């Protein structure tokens, strides 16, 4: 057993994977309404959450409590812009995708500028950017007039390959690429170094600003692409479309095993974390719990994981020997 825990310490994704297996088994045995069709829906929802969460994972990995709170607004605004440009035409898909990538690139660059050049904490900077984007969403909603979806994006988001949702395969490719970057590329090592100790990473020659910039850039671009794909899946764009991804993107990252204080990430764990959160929501929906209670349960799960992570971090710190004067209160 000690061997397993030693192995699990370096492969934290296993805990979310175990949670998925357990919850999946419970649903299969006790929920009569949980069918293969339900499973397909779970995997599809997981795919969209995974794409957003992978971007969030890169930001969280930079450490110092960095979180991208602009993701919901980027998802929603990109959905409006993408559908408005494409308007159900296959010929306009490249232009629509290019537009949303540009949106993501601009927002990511602005977020990075606010954090790196103006020294604004990431949570505040991205929250402010999100508010600005929310205003843009309101303006886009006033001029939105099409709900047509082109066949290409429709097939990509709703089609199946051998009974498996195509969009889930797309998300797994993104997960595999992210894992490859983290494990084998210089950027992955730089990202971990920055997350563990920014000053030490700089002294070691790591281009810290570039590393952090790419993290915010990646997060916004993935959120933007997710927005246009999500609009094709649901057949439209609507206000607060990206709202669920604020809590869930952070939740999938930390539940999956990425350390909230940075320096250690797992792309595979992020996928399992996303799947676990979707299964939790599915379980509560089957149980007939209201939406508010679903948010409470998800929040409780995330708080529990963060509390455990905090305990593990504290346990890993070397204890400073207390002197006699300190022990006496001097």
Feature tags:
globular, single chain, about 325 residues, mainly alpha, 15 helices
Description of the molecule:
This protein is mostly helical and about 325 residues long. The protein has one domain (about 10-310). It contains 15 helices and 2 strands. A two-stranded antiparallel sheet has the order 1-2. α8 (about 165-185) packs across α9 (about 185-195). It is globular, with a radius of gyration of 21 Å. The N and C termini lie far apart (about 45 Å).
Summarize, please.
The protein is mainly α.
Secondary structure elements and pairings:
Blueprint: H1 2-10, H2 13-30, H3 36-61, H4 71-86, H5 93-116, H6 122-142, H7 151-158, E1 160-161, E2 164-165, H8 166-184, H9 186-196, H10 198-203, H11 208-234, H12 244-255, H13 267-286, H14 291-316, H15 324-327
Antiparallel strand pairs: 1-2
Helix pairs in contact: 2-13, 3-8, 3-11, 3-12, 3-13, 4-5, 4-6, 4-11, 5-6, 5-11, 7-11, 8-9, 8-13, 9-11, 12-13, 12-14, 13-14
